[in-house]
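On clarity, I found the account of how folds are encoded harder to follow than it need be. What matters is that the chain and its backbone geometry are given together, residue for residue. For the editor and my fellow referees, an illustration may be useful. For illustration, here is how one protein appears when written out as sequence plus structure tokens:

___
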Amino acid sequence: MTEKEMLQKNIEDFSRVQDWMQLAEKDSDVYKAMRRRYIELKVILTASGINLSELDIIKE
């Protein structure tokens, strides 16, 4: 997988996780698990130089 493909996959995963987070109760174990993945993806994308200002709808 090329770097571009990996970035695209991570951006798509970041968007998908945020959609799911909006559907879950904030105090649920499911939300907490998704939040961990959200933070991981946010770190990966930020370190890759991706500007998340338009993509990050959760903003945690």
Observations:
- The longest helix spans residues 3-23.
